[in-house]
Amino acid sequence: MERSFIYRAFGRKSSLIGKFTPASSSGDKSKKSKKKSDKEKTEEKKAEVPEIPLFVAEFLGKLLSSQKYCDVEFIIGPDDAGEAGTDELKTFKAHKVVLAAHSPLFETMLYGVSQKISTLNEGPLQVRIKDSKPKAFEALLKAIYTDKVDINDDNLEDWTIIGKKYQIEKIQLACATYMEQGINIKNVCQMFETAARLLGDEKFGMNFIRENTVDVFKSESFLKLSSERLEVILADDKLSIDETDLFDAVIKWGKAECKRKSLPNNTVGLKSILKDILSLVRFPIMELTDIAITVGPSQLVPEERLLVLYQYLSMIESEKDDSNDKKENSDEDQVAADEKAKKECKEIIQQWYNIKQRTGGFATKETNLLDRKYKKDVYKFFNIRPGGRLVFKLLYRGSRDGFNASAFHSKCDGKPKTLTVVKAMDSKNIFGGYFDGKWAQSGSYISSPSWLFSLVNRYNKPVKLMPSTTSSNTYVNGSYGPTWGGGHDLHINDRMQSANNYSSPSTYRTFAPGYASLGVNYDNSLLAGSSHFKVEEIEVLQIVKITKVKQML
Question: Is the pLDDT score of 120 beyond 90?
């Protein structure tokens, strides 16, 4: 059978296609081999033919550049082209068959019946397109002819519009791929906006925004969001940001919007811009001090709402401060009256704002011991970079589940990655430890990564302590509460509210990087304030989400 033209032209060593063995080289071998079936011979011949690059895109690119054999002319630009601020009209020549093969719209436009097409004698067809930019249309022609699409943040929206309008699947796929793989802090808000408007995807980029809320809200693209898309973000339950920081970001966006709409950049202008958006800020989950220091002075929240917020948050803080003994000794009528007032206040608040804690950030309402003010220190313990995320799940609380080892093990056994937080009785000290492994009752030491911490101490300097050996990191015993180190460095007894709990430095004698030169002395009173102590409160929190960790220690 005669070889094809391409094979005859390139069936030798060529710099274009590389090296391959011609079919004739197998002749001698066939004489020595056994007789082969016709099917085997056919398959062997197929295997001998190399893959030859056809350079179609290269040839078409040259064809477009040469302007030879063109049979259609596109006149691109709006009717008011040439006026101030508009593009000029431009004419582009092309080939109908090439465009029609790539786009159903071009096929209909060029070979179907269209009033936009006119003929001048036997010259090329002329097509007038008013809703495209000359620069964008030129890029479209190059993409069709050369099979190359250069997408970046600046032209992404233009490419998305073009791909959708002309129904070119490859361009649409290229845009989707860029959006998925090229998403970052700087462009996620732009993509979030574009995907909703042009692709109908209301949630594109939302997961990235949840993971990086703090950094995204500081970006320039956040300030350019439309109010409709901003509202979608603010309504989300999983944003990883403190509500006070969110409120500050909303104000910055409001000032940018005032400038865009030529409104005064003051309280009057902001109230006009933010009147519908502020209802999505969850003021009830802020701290009372945040309302007093940040929200109140902004003058953006009506005074009557501020008063109810003060009342509600005061009740919440008072409830946290009250110990179980105080509640038991309180007058029943007074307790009932307080509960009724709180319920009524809460019902009013819920008519205005969402009171649900966002689960993406440092959810302090999962714990009574780790207040929001400790967020920075706790994140440092876990080596979390700015914009990172830490989400807790409460497994065990002494005041809720019982101050004994049995209650602790029933809630925590088999659960990995836990942070135990302890508040010593008759002391301000807050301390505890992290255990990467699973709690059990085997009566043995576990070498899983662990560390101790002192959050509140007499030095007023939080510190993190690392083990000098891994052989006795954590001790698990059914008769013990959480216990670290040999000796032990921190031991929580079965009877937690007795004075049988203690701290005795042994295994954990090394300060973690960044804590060695603070002037803190690790002795048996650093953690609890004394070597033996009673537990006022204890919580075990499981780490269910953590991001942007420099190094897990």
Answer: no
